[in-house]
Amino acid sequence: MLVNTDYLVVGAGASGLAFTDALVAEEDVEVTVIERRGALGGHWLNVYGFVRLHTPSAYYGVNSLALGDDRIDEVGENAGFYERATGEEVCEHFAQAAERLTQTGRVRVLTGHEHVGHGADGELVRNLETGELHEIAVRRKVVDARYLEASVPATHAPSFEVSADARLLPINDLPAAVRSASSFTVLGSGKTAVDACTWLVDNDVEPDRIRWIRPRDAWFHHRSAFQPLEQVGSIMTGISLDAEAGAQATDIDDLCERLEASGRLLRIDPSWPATMYRGTMLSDHELRAVRQIEHVVRLGRVRRIEADRIVLEQGQIETGSDVVHVDCTALGLRDAPPVPIFQPDRIVLQQVRLNSPCFNAALMGYLEACRDDDADKNRLCPPNPYARSMDDWPRMVRRTWTAEQRWLREPDLSGWIAASRLNLLRALPDHVAEPSVRTAVERFVTHVGPATKRLREIDGTGGSRAVEAG
Ligand SMILES: Cc1cc2nc3c(=O)[nH]c(=O)nc-3n(C[C@H](O)[C@H](O)[C@H](O)COP(=O)(O)OP(=O)(O)OC[C@H]3O[C@@H](n4cnc5c(N)ncnc54)[C@H](O)[C@@H]3O)c2cc1C
């Protein structure tokens, strides 16, 4: 089979679908989306049963289709905040989005198909059911929507050895195992480990039966700072605190202190230095739950789990056959090196605005449809990799502001952004007269220039090298 198409999108996760949705909304083009999994939604197909988005549904998914009802939860741990979809709801959203795209007659979605490279007459795609190879002739561009493919516990291979008589489970299997273990050892420093610990405490496992191997401590945001629409002032306040701290910081350590003092960042154990930053957030409920776990092991990463001991980078601890070890060590967000997003025959979807994967992919779809010059598109989309630690924070924040300022100078683009449901600030104009929002906007405007300059100076100092204040 030789199929012709304008664009071949490789990967039908959030990025590939958000890109396609925005592209075909603006331009009459033919798009073929291929996905090697049997369904749509990318890593969300393999998440644990109790996962939810950590950001509100209001600004997640594809641009043309709402996810949820923009409801504020009244009960539960998310009470007072905008609803957050479950993994299943996220996958339903993407399936529905793909169905609507297919109905345009311009988009073809092939699941169970893997991109394997270039052939003589086009892109080589393998049907994973039959093993057959097909060539797809691409008139315009191949869109790499798997460059930042997520790594999740259910599908990753642990980077350490596990002996046959030790019990290691991905977090997905925790509910089934909870009654059959005397104690639990949770492995990992990030949000998945927080989810595992919170789930255990919420399910009546006494905190003294939980041990947490935390190679690094992490910085988190508070969930209250990422609430859109009626609560959009929370987001503006957070951004303005970033700018204020950025303008005044003398080095990375000082930056962290300022961000923590303002409430912009928090850590589970304020007495212990934190370095990791992945842009994730916690609620008061989660914080209360995980702070009950006192047995925290800080001996570096796990190297080997044996029947009766765990060997770590900096020591070893006892374990046993009745201990369930919960693997939360998958990388999650991939930190591939930045490359130009718009290339002559390829588009490599990456991050631009911080912590906004769906918005970024849709923005690139819009620009591909509405701009001719790749250099211009790349000027508007400087790649901005996900942060792994606070050392990456100055670069990530500074590049976000730089890109946003460029967007503001383009009337059509800023109009698209203002109307996009994926833009977490879209309700800002409706609330700018509120005193707290006005204060935040003024604080941001005052500090963003000096902060951009200062963050450039301290970028890479890693806390060890102070720059002159002033
Ligand atoms: C646990 C978790 C929770 C998250 N929560 C949030 C959140 O609340 N809010 C938020 O904004 N972000 C969140 N993120 C960030 C997340 O990375 C994005 O939300 C998004 O789902 C990533 O989508 P993606 O399409 O880039 O990657 P993926 O979901 O990994 O999709 C890539 C797809 O490409 C396919 N593929 C790879 N190679 C090929 C090939 N050769 N041929 C065909 N197909 C191929 C893969 O099968 C996969 O389906 C979360 C991430 C994780 C890991």
Oligomer: single chain
List ligands, each type once.
Answer: flavin-adenine dinucleotide
Rounded to an integer in angstroms, the radius of gyration calculated over CA atoms is 23 Å
Q: What is the count of helical runs? A: 13
Derived from helix and strand composition plus strand pairing, the structural class reads alpha/beta
N/C terminus separation: 65 Å
What does it look like?
The protein is an alpha/beta fold. The protein contains 13 helices and 20 strands. It has helices at residues 14-26, 87-103, 174-177, 191-202, 233-248, 252-261, 284-291, 357-370, 374-380, 393-408, 411-419, 428-431, 435-458; strands spanning 2-10, 31-35, 107-111, 113-118, 123-127, 133-144, 161-162, 167-170, 183-187, 210-213, 218-222, 266-267, 276-282, 296-297, 302-305, 309-312, 315-318, 323-327, 342-343, 346-348. The strands form 4 sheets. Strands 1, 2, 3, 4, 5, 6, 19 and 20 form an 8-stranded mixed sheet that branches. A 5-stranded parallel sheet has the order 8-18-9-10-14, covered by helices on one side. Helix 1 (14-26) runs parallel beside helix 2, helix 1 runs parallel beside helix 8 and helix 4 (191-202) packs across helix 7. 45% of the residues are buried. The model is unreliable at 463-470 (pLDDT under 50). The structure holds flavin-adenine dinucleotide. Flavin-adenine dinucleotide is lined by residues 10-16, 34-37, 42-43, 47, 53-55, 60, 114-115, 145-146, 148-150, 152, 332-333, 357.
